[in-house]
Amino acid sequence: MAGERLPGPATPGADVPVHVGLRTSDMDEATDFCRKLYYGPLRIEPVGDPGRLRFTADVATLGPITVGEVRYGTDIRVSIGALETAYHVLVPLNGFIRSQHRGSAVFADASRAVVYRPTGDIEIDWPGTCRLLSVKVDRAALEREVDAALDQRVVSPLPLGATFDLVDGPGRTWAALARLLLHELRGPDALASRPRMAARWRDMVVSGLALTVEHPYGEEPAGLQGPHRPRTVKRALDAMNTEPARGWTTHDLAALAGVGARVLQESFRQHVGLPPLTYLRRLRLDGVHDELSRSEPGRVSVSEVAYRWGFTHLGRFAGAYRDRFGESPSQTLRGRR
């Protein structure tokens, strides 16, 4: 079956939607389409019968977001280099996918979406029966939205949770909103095809994701993990995220929060799931990993990046880093070659 492209405007604008699509049984054509619409460093390998490939994609771009429904028709494996410039969410509409990202294996189906951060290679096992909603959001757009919503400086890239619920709460609403936007952009006379309305809808998708996905800043996303974090916990979290390299102690953070050390410890276990200094160590490790992932070998050293993020004992740092990411810091840095 030859490729059949769906009609769409030729040139995208900041708030002018562009709708394109493809139906093909040619793997090279499908790969080229996905590279142009989503990411350049992408490889697609058939795991099932290549003769059963029936790639269908219906995709719209709107300023900083790209949203589409995609299916391959045969089992494939997708390998993607570090996204770098975007965050990405995959929502299986039927079937399931398995993926590996940043040392963690994630299973996603119609009940749970998977979230990818800008750093770390991605590998996805995608059965031919799975059709999914694929949403890419430019890195700067999502980070600005979280920053504006919380009125505080955030670490880039955001330490987002790897999945979120699609059955109840904001995740279900956000996925429905993104899918409805794609449906609206298919029609030239739809309300969302008008630039002013498209811009508002675009902002709703970005801000809705910021409120849906899990992150450690301020209060929890509404409805995601129960009651909001108390002000004492928020003050300690804000301090650590603002100055992650500072030599914080539990007593320092407790004094800042206006409670005793034992109260702060218990509040963190209840509302964060980690003791304060364990959270701080993870924050620092993620910061080092993200910086090493973006750095060129020879221009920086592991030790200077580690010191910059507050690690003073390199032996303990290296062990904790390997436990968290499954590789040494130098391997992460060499991976940029």
UniProtKB/TrEMBL annotation:
SUPFAM superfamilies, sorted: Homeodomain-like (SSF46689)
GO molecular function, one term: sequence-specific DNA binding
Origin superkingdom: Bacteria
KW Secreted (keyword) present: no
UniProt keyword annotations, A-Z: DNA-binding, Transcription, Transcription regulation
Chain ranges of the HTH araC/xylS-type domain: 234-335
PANTHER family cross-referenced by the UniProt entry: HTH-TYPE DNA-BINDING TRANSCRIPTIONAL ACTIVATOR EUTR, HTH-TYPE TRANSCRIPTIONAL ACTIVATOR RHAS-RELATED
Name assigned to this protein: AraC family transcriptional regulator
Organism from which the protein derives: Actinoplanes italicus
Higher taxonomy: Bacteria, Bacillati, Actinomycetota, Actinomycetes, Micromonosporales
